[in-house]
Amino acid sequence: MEIDKAIRDSDDRRLKTKYHNAIYVIQRALALYSIEEVAFSFNGGKDSTVLLHLLRAGYFLHQVERGHSNGGLSDGEFTFPIRTIYFETPSVFPEINSFTYETAASYGVKLDIIREDFKSGLEALLKAKSTKAIFLGVRIGDPTAVGQEQFSPSSPGWPPFMRVNPILDWSYRDVWAFLLTCKVPYCSLYDQGYTSIGSIHDTVPNALLSIKDSAVDKQKFKPAYMLSDGRSERAGRARKLSAAAACVPAASNGLKCAEPHQGSIYTASIVAVGDEILFGIVEDQLGPSLCKKLHSIGWLVSQMATVRCEVDSVAEEVERRKSMSDLVFIYGGVGPLHTDVSVGGVAKAFGVRLAPDEEYEEYLCRLFGDKCTGNRNEMAQLPEGITELLEHEKLPVPLIKCHNVIVLTATNVDELDRQWDALIDLRSTNLLAPTGPFVSKHLETSLSDLEVAQPLSKIAIEFPDISTGCYRKTRAGPLIITLEGKDQETVEAAMEALSKKLPSGVKQISV
């Protein structure tokens, strides 16, 4: 079998791992179901083409293990026995149709042609022929992949069958590595700059592959396998952005476009994700520490919230905060566990899907080594089209930035210190816009809250740019009054005015 030999002869260790994992899923399915009980949904696209050849190799190896083949058959001598479904629609590209029929003829694939919508056609097919499992070329990041695993029962309201997804954890790079390594034919549209193919109504060549050539009038494109960033795979597909996502211009990185100066006040929101914090099991130390750090560089923290480990809870809070703050920091809920929903919540807040990020996955592989599979591999699913990786030599893995939302991975104050230092070093990228520090003055008095209330209210009216506040370290201790602003003279004037309004027994202190 040429496919298996091509992979064995390859030096691409990553591709070999992906291949063997996919073959294992296929062989497991063939052990659970008879060949008459399985089907394969083929659509002529690159993912589907990869799965076709994986199924050919998987079935062949399955037969070899059972002693039904000597392993020496060539591709031309091998018959593909798995029933293959092709949904043909009026909006399909002619090139996809041609490729599908040519492929079927070349590899002995018998097509069941269905000219209805997917659900209706599937219902009719399953009534006519008993099918318990269907192989699908779904990858994490596809719109239909949400909540799916390698073996997933069909959704409620659909005919009952098992969805088998052998390439669920494959990235764009993996798909093209397989096609090019195995030297198998693929649809000609991919050589014309199409990177993800839908219908003729919503698909165009990927502009990132455009070739500028003044000598010719017709625009040209590089082939799909030359796209360097798999996160842009669907850039040629028409999509609707949510109003919230559209209102944040990518060019400004989500920050306001005002020129920074010493009197500016930039605002930040902090979102902690963790049931343990809300249950009172652990005490949040990162939030207060982050508040101090932001305050030290002149940023105002306008909101700090803690939410449940639920995608919707995270999405709702991020949705509220990202339009009201210059930056939103979110921490907790990052990792391989089912409760680690922060990144998914951020994606939902911006109205985009999660998609494999090959660059981030490489960092994870270096960090975890051979353990970077399964759930750890899913950690490389990042919000599509809006993710920027903040790399720094102090960080083993880059921080994730989505427009004006920064996902921190720190679990303790020491890790937060390192990540903060890295962010400060990256200030040259206008990440944390330079702004003047706050000027603070503190007064201590033995007066009661009632005695201070009216004078302090007058100061708030007379000096609207000054933040005023009071606190006691103990119930019986002195009252400490804080005056804070950006302008030294204004803060001192407010302090002097307040001192005159209060009775004696007030003194300035350092905190």
How helix-rich are the residues, as a percent range?
Answer: 25-40%
**Shape annotation:** elongated
Number of helices: 16
Tell me the distance between the termini. 76 Å
The biggest beta sheet, please?
6 strands, mixed
Unreliable stretches: 239-263
Beta-strand share of residues: 15-25%
- Arithmetic mean pLDDT: 84
| Structural Rg | 30 Å
Main-sheet strand order equals: 3-2-1-4-6-5
- How many extended strands? 20
| Structural class category | alpha/beta
3D architecture notes:
With about 500 residues, the protein is α/β, with parallel strands linked by helices. It has 16 helices and 20 strands. The strands form 5 sheets. Strands 3-2-1-4-6-5 form a 6-stranded mixed β-sheet. Strands 10-9-11-16-15-14 form a 6-stranded mixed β-sheet, with helices on both faces. Strand 14 and strand 15 form a beta hairpin. Helix 2 packs across helix 3, helix 10 crosses helix 11 and helix 15 crosses helix 16. The N and C termini lie far apart (about 75 Å).
Summarize the entry for a quick read.
Helices cover 35% and strands 17% of the residues.
Essential attributes:
511 residues; alpha/beta; six-stranded mixed β-sheet; 16 helices
SSE map:
Layout: H1 2-9, H2 13-32, E1 38-41, H3 46-65, E2 83-87, H4 94-107, E3 111-114, H5 118-128, E4 133-135, E5 151-153, E6 162-164, H6 172-182, E7 210-211, E8 220-221, H7 243-246, E9 266-273, H8 275-278, H9 286-296, E10 299-307, H10 311-322, E11 327-331, H11 342-350, E12 354-356, H12 358-368, H13 375-378, E13 381-383, E14 387-390, E15 399-402, E16 405-408, H14 413-425, E17 439-445, H15 449-462, E18 467-471, E19 479-485, H16 488-501, E20 506-509
Parallel strand pairs: 1-2, 1-4, 2-3, 4-6, 9-10, 9-11, 11-16
Antiparallel strand pairs: 5-6, 7-8, 12-13, 14-15, 15-16, 17-19, 17-20, 18-19
